[in-house]
């Protein structure tokens, strides 16, 4: 490995074999530093863009980033570090060992110091802290770089770690009796950090030990006054206690040979019984859990305050098997040993192994012996044991760690008396019943996040292995579901040769390939070992009641990411109340996570285990019935939602074996749309599952029934994919009429993402299928959709002809909804052609028919089209009336797509009236909705309108930002005419900014784009400005 040193704890520097790298500019230094802080792992391009420019980034951000990366790569090569900055997937990585980066070494020293402090090895802790703090050569990291967003938060975190390390350093110095030196340095630190209570406490203690009793008290009073004035709070209990002890001139505050006397460890007496120290050894390479550790740390502020009644005396760490509950509890307990002067007790209740579980009496007997009670003095009655246990703990400070708790009833006798004791319990169950007796701090563990999972793997297999195969490492973590036990087993197979004969030294990609196969749970085991992912899941599964185990197996048959409570009840054919009770047991056992009220999720590995249990233990007929119930439930829910959202869409009525027991949402449009949104991630997997398992009616029926949802909420690319599944299902079913319906739906989906040529291809394929099956209503709809595609291509003559064909077909067959739709679309096309005067008759008739047939969606569409006609004709007041009426209907229906489009129209109307401030208010509401439904076309047109409003108000910088962002959105949904409009207005902006050359560039580009789509009037008008 090439020798290299990267410094980010201050000005950014890189020193390679040939000397320092010449990093020019704050952005280059920022790129290098951000990659160094994540050495050996890929940093996505978008994260770097966010860190360098924030939100929103400039249009040129990606190109600028690529340029900065190229220059940093060149500077690294010159200093003797070629090829260390690599491009990986959609990001970049600095392929250097973490220990070449000073920030990594600093945090390692701090971790080592804290372990030493926990073990009482003060001198060694002080040495580590000194070495770590010496790595800082400025008060802030990245001192000469410019970052924002998440990177700013990372710098704040490093600064906080540094300050805490300084506090630890001076704490250690005081414990070593160096209070004379500490006073001056702590005084200087308090100038810049006057409100840090721990610093103030250390300063007070140093002053007191230097016989400056009054000055120490004054420091406390200064802080208390400032906290009251600036924050309205009082000092915390630790500092208040120290103040009281100084007032008393308590001798315990003087240095003592028997142990430290600092703010956190003041003790007036030594234990009278043997001091138990029963904590198990820390787990190797403990990683992550920062928030959970912080929660436990905050708990200590209450649990050991002398003379104060403790609010919380019990902490419960719960989570699925293999998630790292015991590792977290033991890690934290070791850090806190100096906070419990009378020791630490530990007992493993083995609550998840019924045949060997410890009874409360056995656990109490163990505790009493550990507290020095002779065996012959221990009562035989559990109630008397508990009473003696509480009496012995009443005046003590002891940490009790109970591992693998089974039920709350097993834990209740072990809750200590005395406000300074703390009981920490780990369990696969939430132990909710404990909260009915005691104040409980509940900590639920989930799988690791991506960063911590990668960090754990790197520690276990070594940085070199991860650096060689970063993509395989990321895939391995995904396949392990970011579960600590699974990652540790995978690493063991890679590094020790355990599992197969040739395992040692195997590439990460080889094991990832094995895990990607059908037997992932089998692969996550070590041959001959008692620990495997399957084994820990199985132990939790075996403890379930039969009804809960049955439902757990059935949930494994669901192909999606979450399951709602009503669907779970339907799959198991249970009443909702009983299903809720059964699900409660699964949630309590952490086999299922309730991600929101009534919505459940199984982690990937647990879902795989549930599926395998279903395949092994449920009969084929039982599995088939559960699957049929699931698919019928989705069809029934989609049919009811369609009836509520779009009652005119009535061509499909699913034939269901199993009726819907209860609608999972109120029978109103907005709740129906919200529920389908919550199910959105499941819709494609369910349709794909149905197709793969021969249920060919399900995908195409879902596609049809969900049309109103997608019309209202966007998600166009998902709609295209669902339509493709619908086409495939219709072809598999051999029904030409259904295939025609699906190809028509696919054409509409393509129109929504402005892929008009592909839309026309699909629609012209649908037309003969509809005709051959005699579906003339469908033929009329296809002609209507063909016209919409031509209109999108600005081939308006062909569009009007196709709309007229649709009108003739619908009129001949008396389909009034189709007639109204064709009339509305014909009128709207005239408006787009710049001939609003020709639209009035068609649009008025469309509005009349829609009201006569009671179709609110079509009524709103006609009102919206009338508003556009008014706007194009210069009648802003009429436009506002029509748009306002349309908006009211769309809001009633919960249709975010058309709410946004209507708000866009209202904004343009106010702009026409010369009210840009009012216009921007409506346009920003439209932009919010466009973001919610992820519609880049709508975002682009709304941003363009905002730019016009800002131009009208003379806010040129804001206008430029909106035009740049609109052009960026057009990358996703190209539209030549709209791009021409943007360049036209960019030219106007440059002209007003006094840059005629740039203005001419944008106008010339706009003219070429207008000509490309035969917009000759617009091209000629703009060309005239260039002459």
TrEMBL record:
Q: Keywords for this entry?
A: DNA-binding, TPR repeat, Transcription, Transcription regulation
* One Gene Ontology MF term: DNA binding
Report domain OmpR/PhoB-type positions. Answer: 1-96
The UniProt entry, under SUPFAM superfamilies, shows: C-terminal effector domain of the bipartite response regulators, P-loop containing nucleoside triphosphate hydrolases, TPR-like
DNA bind region: 1-96
Where would I find the TPR repeats? 780-813
Task: Please report a single Pfam family linked to this protein.
Answer: BTAD
What PANTHER family would the database entry show?
TRANSCRIPTIONAL REGULATOR REDD, TRANSCRIPTIONAL REGULATOR REDD-RELATED
Family affiliation: Belongs to the AfsR/DnrI/RedD regulatory family.
Protein name stated in the entry:
SARP family transcriptional regulator
Q: What is the lineage of its organism?
A: Bacteria, Bacillati, Actinomycetota, Actinomycetes, Micromonosporales
């Amino acid at each position: 490995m090439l020798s290299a040193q990267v410094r980010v704890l201050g000005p950014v520097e890189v020193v390679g074999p040939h000397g320092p790298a010449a990093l020019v500019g704050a952005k280059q230094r920022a790129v290098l530093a951000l990659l160094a802080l994540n050495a050996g792992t890929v940093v996505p391009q978008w994260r770097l863009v966010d860190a360098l420019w924030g939100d929103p980034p400039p249009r040129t951000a990606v190109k600028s980033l690529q340029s900065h990366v190229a220059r940093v790569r060149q500077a690294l090569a010159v200093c003797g570090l070629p090829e260390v900055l690599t491009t990986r997937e959609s990001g970049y990585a600095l392929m250097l060992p973490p220990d070449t980066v000073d920030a990594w070494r600093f945090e390692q020293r701090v971790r080592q110091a804290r372990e030493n402090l926990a073990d009482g090895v003060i001198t060694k802790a002080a040495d580590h802290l000194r070495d770590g703090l010496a790595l800082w050569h400025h008060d802030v990291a990245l001192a000469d770089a410019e970052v924002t967003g998440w990177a700013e938060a990372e710098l704040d975190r490093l600064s906080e770690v540094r300050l805490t390390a300084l506090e630890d350093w001076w704490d250690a110095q005081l414990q070593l009796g160096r209070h004379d030196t500490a006073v001056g340095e702590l005084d200087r630190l308090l100038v810049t950090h006057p409100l840090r209570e721990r610093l103030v406490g250390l300063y007070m203690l140093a002053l007191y030990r230097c016989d400056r009793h009054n000055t120490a008290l004054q420091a406390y009073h200064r802080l208390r006054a400032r906290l009251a004035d600036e924050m309205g709070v009082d000092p915390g209990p630790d500092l208040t206690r120290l103040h009281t002890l100084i007032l008393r001139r308590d001798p315990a505050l003087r240095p003592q040979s028997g142990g430290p006397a600092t703010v956190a460890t003041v003790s007036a007496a030594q234990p009278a019984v043997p001091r138990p120290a029963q904590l198990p050894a820390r787990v190797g390479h403990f990683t992550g859990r920062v928030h959970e550790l912080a929660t436990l740390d905050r708990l200590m502020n209450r649990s050991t305050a002398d003379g104060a009644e403790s609010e919380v005396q019990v902490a419960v760490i719960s989570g699925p098997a293999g998630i790292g509950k015991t590792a977290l509890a033991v890690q934290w307990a070791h850090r806190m040993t100096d906070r419990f002067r009378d020791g630490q007790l530990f007992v493993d209740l083995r609550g998840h192994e019924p045949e060997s579980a410890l009874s409360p009496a056995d656990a109490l007997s163990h505790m009493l012996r550990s507290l020095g009670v002779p065996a012959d003095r221990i009562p035989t009655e559990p109630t008397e044991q508990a009473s003696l246990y509480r009496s012995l703990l009443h005046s003590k400070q002891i940490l009790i760690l109970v591992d693998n708790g089974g039920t709350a009833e097993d834990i209740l006798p072990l809750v200590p008396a005395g406000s300074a004791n703390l009981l920490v319990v780990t369990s696969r169950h939430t132990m909710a019943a404990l909260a009915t007796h005691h104040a409980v701090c509940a900590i639920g563990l989930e799988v690791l996040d991506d960063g911590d999972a990668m960090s754990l793997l790197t520690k276990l297999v070594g940085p070199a292995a991860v650096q060689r195969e970063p993509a395989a490492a990321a895939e391995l973590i995904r396949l392990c579901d970011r579960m600590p036990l699974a990652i540790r087993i995978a690493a063991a197979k890679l590094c020790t040769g355990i599992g197969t004969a040739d395992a040692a030294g195997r590439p990460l990609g080889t094991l990832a390939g094995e895990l990607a196969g059908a037997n992932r749970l089998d692969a996550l085991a070590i041959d001959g070992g008692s620990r495997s992912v399957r084994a820990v899941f199985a132990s939790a599964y075996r403890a379930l009641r039969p009804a809960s185990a049955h439902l757990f197996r059935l949930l494994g048959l669901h192909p999606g990411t979450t399951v709602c409570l009503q669907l779970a009840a339907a799959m198991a054919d249970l009443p909702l109340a009983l299903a809720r009770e059964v699900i409660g047991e699964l949630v309590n056992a952490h086999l299922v996570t309730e991600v929101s009220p009534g919505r459940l999720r199984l982690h990937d590995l647990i879902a795989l285990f549930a599926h395998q249990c279903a395949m092994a233990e449920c009969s084929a007929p039982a599995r088939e019935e559960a699957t049929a119930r699931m698919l019928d439930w989705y069809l029934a829910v989609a049919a009811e939602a369609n009836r509520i959202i779009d009652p005119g869409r009535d061509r499909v009525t699913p034939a269901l074996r199993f009726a819907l027991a209860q609608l999972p949402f109120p029978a109103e449009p907005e709740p129906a749309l919200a529920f389908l949104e919550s199910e959105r991630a499941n819709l494609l997997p369910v349709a794909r599952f149905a197709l793969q398992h021969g249920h060919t009616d399900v995908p195409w029926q879902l596609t049809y029934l969900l049309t109103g949802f997608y019309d209202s909420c966007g998600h166009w690319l998902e709609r295209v994919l669902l339509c493709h599944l619908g086409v495939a299902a219709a072809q598999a079913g051999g029904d030409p009429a259904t295939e025609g319906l699906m190809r028509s739906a696919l054409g509409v989906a393509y129109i929504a993402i402005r892929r008009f040529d592909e839309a026309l291809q699909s629609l012209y394929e649908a037309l003969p299928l509809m005709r051959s099956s005699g579906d003339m209503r469908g033929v009329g709809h296809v002609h209507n959709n063909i016209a919409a595609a031509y209109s999108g291509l600005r081939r308006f003559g062909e569009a009007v002809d196709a709309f007229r064909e649709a009108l003739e077909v619908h009129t001949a067959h008396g389909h009034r909804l189709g007639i109204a739709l064709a009339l509305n679309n014909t009128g709207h096309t005239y408006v787009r052609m710049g001939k609003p005067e020709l639209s009035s008759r068609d649009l008025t008739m469309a509005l009349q028919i829609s009201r006569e047939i009671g179709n609110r969606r079509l009524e709103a569409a006609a009102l919206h089209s009338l508003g556009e006609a008014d706007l194009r004709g210069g009648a802003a007041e009429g436009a506002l009336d029509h748009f306002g009426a349309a908006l009211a209907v769309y809001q009633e229906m919960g249709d975010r797509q058309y709410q946004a489009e209507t708000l866009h129209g209202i904004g343009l109307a106010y702009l026409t009236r010369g009210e840009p401030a009012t216009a921007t208010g409506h346009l920003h509401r439209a932009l919010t909705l466009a973001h919610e439904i992820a519609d880049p076309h709508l975002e682009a047109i709304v941003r363009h309108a905002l730019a016009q409003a800002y131009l009208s108000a003379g806010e040129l910088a804001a206008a430029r930002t909106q035009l740049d962002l609109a052009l960026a959105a057009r990358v996703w949904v190209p539209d030549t005419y709209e791009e021409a409009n943007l360049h036209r207005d960019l030219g106007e902006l440059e002209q007003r900014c006094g840059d005629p050359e740039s203005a001419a560039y944008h106008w010339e580009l706009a003219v070429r784009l207008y000509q490309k789509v035969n917009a000759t009037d617009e091209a000629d008008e703009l060309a005239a400005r260039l002459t």
